[in-house]
Design goal:
- The protein folds into two domains: 120 residues, Leucine Aminopeptidase, subunit E, domain 1 (3-Layer(aba) Sandwich), CATH 3.40.220.10; 318 residues, Zn peptidases (Aminopeptidase).
- The strands form four sheets. Strands 7-8-10-9-13-17-14-15 form an eight-stranded mixed beta sheet, sandwiched between helices. The chain has a six-stranded mixed beta sheet with strand order 1-6-5-2-4-3, with helices on one face.
- It is an alpha/beta fold.
- GO terms for molecular function: manganese ion binding; metalloaminopeptidase activity.
Amino acid sequence: MHLTTQPSSPDLTLHFAASTDAAGRVGQGLKPGELRLLARHEAHDEALALAPTTPADAREVGRALAKLARELGARALSVDECDFPAALAGAAAAAGWQDRRYKGEGAAGALESGEMQLHVSGLSEAERRRVEGLLRGVTFARELTSAPANVINPATLAREARGLASEHLQVEVWDESDIQARGMGLLLAVAAGSETGPRLIRLTLPARGQRRKVIALVGKGITFDTGGYSLKAAAGMYGMKNDMGGAAAVLGAMAALSELREQVPEGVEVRAYVAAAENMVGPRAMRPGDIYRAANGKTVEVTNTDAEGRLVLGDALTVACDEGATEVIDLATLTGVKVSALGNDMAALFCNDRTLAAGLAQAAESAGEMVWELPLHRPYLRSYQKDTLADLKNSDMQPAGASIKAALFLQEFVTRPWAHLDIAGNAEKDSVATGWGVGTLVEYVLAQG
């Protein structure tokens, strides 16, 4: 869906009524976020919604508008002036996305949302640029997450990241020899069973003016997770192409921030680190009981090869801190029990710094994404430290408190203010990739004035 600055001859126009306004009684019974088709004319259609009173209402209206437009086959949409036009426009533009790249020729069928034009009265030029920049990042993240594992592996993910390189965005890729030279034994261990091998993808958006802050975004990039020798059941393995949802969100955020570079506060540099690997079974694959040395010198005994995300993140977090990040934020589809605790709509937030936690919570709210903070209860780490020859185990094989324990494991690899977002269940909804996290990261960076 393309945002237009000037209204065209619309196929569908959306009007608003106040909740106290009967609008000729036609609007009676409408609920916030609902649309009602008012009239169908030969040249265009008209719909009605209650005027949104919150950004959340506006997003619901936007999603409903995109749905109605597809049903009617409308190509040009016009929306009357309302509060929160950017929230409405962003939701409408993102709502209709579908991945049709793998359909046969002529299978697209219905009108694609990308063919639609949307004009929202009251949307400023700056807001339009911000919505479009964010949409680019979300779409890029969705395409990466949605792609099958025979298309996106560590090497091709690195290739896609290289495609983001521009005058303002620098991209560097470490291959297996580079990773080995840096001592990233955990990332190497996870990738050992794969023919593709690992990649460490680094992107940098330099600061405008004198650098005063470096925000590092770290993404888990497991492009497919079989569970390794701790093999997943068939039902649990299907869909594991999505185990790089954190990496996709981080790369999507960098794509959006590159588009919005002039809105990034002066002095703020943003870096991204994606630890990419496939967790496969093979002659060189890690085994339960193997011990590996991490980039920070700690040793880890692998008790569960299906707890691999925390391993690749541990090395990437170490590198981000060692390279001078002021603060570090990681995103990962990390633990299944997070879904049991919080479902698919909200992410679990763990943080060792109150200012960072508050900033991320506010950014998530601004983006229309939800987070819920869980505690870093230090005593839970003891079960990862006992009965092992190494400094740590990667799992105690107990589901109770598993999301907290995984976050505590990651904390062993950071030396800066740090936040961990467990987005298990968020990266896909109803079998459609969401790009969850792009909005939160972008809003957080843009708020660093």
